[in-house]
Amino acid sequence: MTMMSCCVPSRDASDRFPCLSDPVRRSTLCLRLALVTLHLIFVGFIFIFNQEFRDNIKEQPLYTSMYLLLVVVTLAQYFFTSGSSPGYVLDAMREFAKTEASLRASEVSKQPASSKNGNVVVTIDRNRSGEHLVGNNPMNWTKMVMDMYPPGTSVRTYTCSYCNVVQPPRAKHCHDCDKCVLQFDHHCVWLGTCIGQGNHCRFWWYILEETALSIWTGILYIKYLQASFDKAWLVDVIMIILLSILSIALIFLLLLLLFHSYLVVTNQTTYELVRRRRIPYMRNIPERVYPFSKGACRNLYNFCFARTSIYAMEPLPGAQELEQMSVPYTCLDVISCRCCC
């Protein structure tokens, strides 16, 4: 008798779960699980050890419901932001090709068809004309992008050596995502994605919600320690450790929120602020001039409401506009709200 124990080859976990085969996706998944676990630990300790908070569930259900709602909204915003697209240049090129194709097709459809012997003869395939003219011709994209730069700019300067595409202003190649990102801000390790034009607003709201949740949770921890500091010392030690970790995280979140709020008001990105002198089109612009700023109020409005597409692109201002931006502010400018409009 032939023993056939363990003769069936075992399937690797990476075969059953494709997301585990990629090291980058695997590390991103582990970070997401770690972040959710941290939220459950900090919130769970309040429910387990804070008797006053448990009593408020019956006495003040609205208070507890609002706190739990904030926890759920924060986690939902985290996954919503991490799963959103920052706006890739290749996707913008496809969108541009589709738009151009539809415009060309509509132009062709408006042209009168040729007739011969009273019979209408269609000489052009209207379904494929736009695709042929635009979809297979990257020169249209190159011309459109280069019109956003000052005259005389070389195409080679803004052609990505990895993606081999012409980058519009404010775009940058992300080596973690291996794609060119529109209005690149930074690559967030905790979210596992780039922060760019398509998800910068969602990222700001996530930071705000996370900061509010951390402040509320810290207040609940402090109330617990004030009420029961002399009872169970082991629980108090754990709560003090968690509160210390929470305080460090809160300081980081507050600084991050203030920093990105400043970027939003001035219409800048982290990459533009940190690597200003390494970006070719920003080298000759004075330090205190923000070339893409439309004023604080207009910047806030565009950031939150006005943007209708994640593929919208901003051209560089001309020499005359830059000269006006470089003029120092006066008292009259402050009264007239020049910095806001």
Short description:
The protein is mostly helical and about 350 residues long.
Q: Indicate the multimeric state.
A: single chain
Tally of DSSP helical segments: 13
Content of β-strand: 5-15%
Taking Cα atoms only, what radius of gyration do you get, to the nearest Å? 28 Å
Order of helices and strands: HHHHHEEHHEEEEHHHHHH
| Amino- and carboxy-terminal Cα gap | 89 Å
Count the beta strands: 6
**Structural domain tally:** 2
Give the CA-based shape.
elongated
Share of helix, binned: 55-70%
Spans of at least 5 consecutive residues whose pLDDT stays below 50 are 1-11, 114-136
What integer is the average pLDDT?
81
| Largest sheet descriptor | 2 strands, antiparallel
Spatial arrangement of strands, main beta sheet: 1-2
Structural class by sheet pairing and helices = mainly alpha
